[in-house]
Amino acid sequence: MASAETAAEHERILREIESTDTNCIGPTLRSVYDGQEHGLFMDKLEGRIRNHDREIEKMCNHHFQGFVDSITELLKVRGEAQKLKCQVTETNQKLQNDGKELLTSMDELRQCRLQQRNIATTIDKLTHCLPVLEMYSKLQEQMRAKRYYPALRTLEQLEESCLPQAGSYRFCGIMSENIPRLRTHIRDVSMSDLKDFLESIRKHSDKIGETAMKQAQVQIARDNAVTSQQRSASGRRIRKEACSGTEVDRTGSNPFSEKDSGILDVEDEEKDEIPGAQDLVDFSPVYRCLHIYTVLGARDTFENYYRKQRRKQARLVLQPHSNMHETLEGYRRYFNQIVGFFVVEDHILHTTQGLVNRAYVEELWELALSKTIAALRTHSSYCTDPDLILDLKNLIVLFADTLQGYGFPVNQLFDMLLEMRDQYGEILLKKWNQSFRQILDQDNYSPIPVASPEEYQRIAGQFPFQDPELDKMPFPKKLPFSEFVPKVYSQLKEFIYACLKYSEDLHLSSTEIDDMIRKSTNLLLTRTLSHCLQYAIKKKNVGLAELVQIIINTTHLEQSCHYLEEFISNITNVPPDTINATKLYGTSTFKDARHAAEEEIYTNLNQKIDQFLQLADYDWTAAQGGAQASDYLSDLIAFLCSTFAVFTHLPGKVAQTACMSACKHLSTSLLQLLLEGDVRQVSMGALQQFNVDVKECERFARAGPVPGFQGDTLLLAFIDLRQLLDLFTQWDWSTYLADYGRPTCKYLRVNPQTALTLLEKISLSMKDTSRKNNMFAQFRKNERDKQKLIDTVVKQLRNLIATNQA
Known about the structure:
One of its GO terms (biological process) is Golgi to plasma membrane transport. This is Exocyst complex component. By secondary structure, the protein is mainly alpha-helical. It has helices spanning 2-19, 26-34, 38-144, 148-166, 170-223, 225-245, 258-261, 266-271, 277-280, 284-295, 299-317, 328-351, 358-380, 386-405, 411-442, 453-462, 468-472, 484-503, 510-538, 544-559, 561-572, 586-613, 631-646, 652-675, 684-702, 719-730, 733-739, 752-773, 781-805, and strands at residues 449-450, 477-478. The protein has a two-stranded antiparallel ribbon with strand order 1-2. The longest helix has 107 residues, at 38-144. The protein is rod-shaped and about 235 Å long. Mean pLDDT is 79; it is low at 235-272 and 775-779.
């Protein structure tokens, strides 16, 4: 049973070996060797091999004849193959021999086509590289020529178009590496050019501004040429009317003359063409740098840098020199620099797109305007020369007109000029104050002698004086006023002209100019001239003759005030009767001066009277008075007579007032002399002498030293003294005491206190005289009675005084 299974297993193994790939029989054979029947399997295997050998031998025997036939046929084929081989070898040799030339030609053709292909490739590459080289050569040429903006464009085209098409050659790599460095170089060089440009315009802004202001001046002259001719014709007509109507302007200058108007000679200016700012400045560095930075994508950086640098330059330009106020040239350089700065900025504004904008320029202008006005206010305040102020005003007007032509608002400048007008007026007042004082100091205060008609016409041309009676008198003759009248009147006209010159070109209406001139003239009259006249009147050592002449002079000046009104109206073309027109205060000024002179005359007369009274030497204890007036009083009367003789040219009321004032002062002073405390006793003899002196004064008053008094009006100045003296000389105390207080009282002007004082002095004198005559005897009866009467009157006077005080 076991052997049967073993045999079956061995059979299975053999079939497996026969049917299985030899590479996979390892496990099968291992199972044989692992078992115990190895010998049996080997026997079985040997038997199977023998069976297969028998089958192979049978197979070979069955096919052997076919194999032999195949070998025989193969041997035949081998012979034929050998023949064929020889033929092929021979044919190949012939073919090789015949193909050598062809191979040579083919090799040559191959080499030629390879060269052609290389040439084509080279041409193609060169076609792409040559533009790069040409472009780079062009770039180098532009860099050498400093044409940086085209170079930058070339560089951009080289980088974006040419190099990518050329390929990755070494020289292309070198070029690519150089491109950033070239860009940086171009940017640095253009920035350096910009810095040079900024430095150049900073240095030459003075010249640029000067040129711009000359252009503006020429343009204004051209625009105003026709207007100037019309003004000249109008000025000639005004002078003709003024000469024929008022004879004021015979020798005066025309305020609208070519010299005074500030208008340039247009024909001369047209001969010399003035270059513009663009002709003086090369703006190409700015444009080039702007384009370069725009291409480089750094336009904002460039704009910020440019504006920052220009702001710094603006601050430097707007900083005035410390001595700018000393000369007009200092102001001119200052204005030229500012104008040059803003002319450049205006040109940049209009020739570039966005480098500077209107807001930026306006901001700079506001800064410049504020600093310029502040600087002008500060420096002009140091100026004391009216001519320099006037030249400065004309320069500021030209400065404003120039910048206004470029579109900058300049209203604040004209407002500042109106402020400077007040300063100019004050300086004029100081200058005219010196002129007036010099005129008054140098005047001889004597009527002007006129020896010929020509001299008379010259003075009449300076001062509007008309006197038909004086005209009829033969030469030589004398004008009533002194030299300072025509000189002062001429100075008033010159002052008006000076005010008019300042008001020109300020864009003011005729009414505003007229009002300004009138207000300034009023200041001159009420402040300067008035003070000068007061100074001339109040100064020491001024005599009565000088004061009289001052009154005469101011009277004529007062009469000429309406001529000044007409003169101002003629030069301003504003009728004097215009509504709200300012009136001149000349009349009141000269009236005040005349009144001051009159008061000074009164004061001087009183002082002279006091000086004479100081010479009075009364013997208050004299027993008997003289028959003639005292010497001092005779001298005083003689002085008053000679003085009042000089008053013939004065207005009647002035002479009368002076005479009345002198007489009243003399009367009051004589009364004070009689009543003064130092005089303790007054004898009847002294009173009689005093009465003689008063009568001499009354004779002087009655003689009428000044015409115009009605009756004995002048005698009223001595009425107080006369009634007092009559009361004592007539010893009419009963009448005085009985009628006191009545309107019809004979001694109405006698004051009880005055009478009491003088009576006490007389009483004391009588007592002293009695003691001297009879020291140890009793008073005589009549003296005792008189003394009792005096005591009674004294008591009644005291009662009367007490009653009045109660």
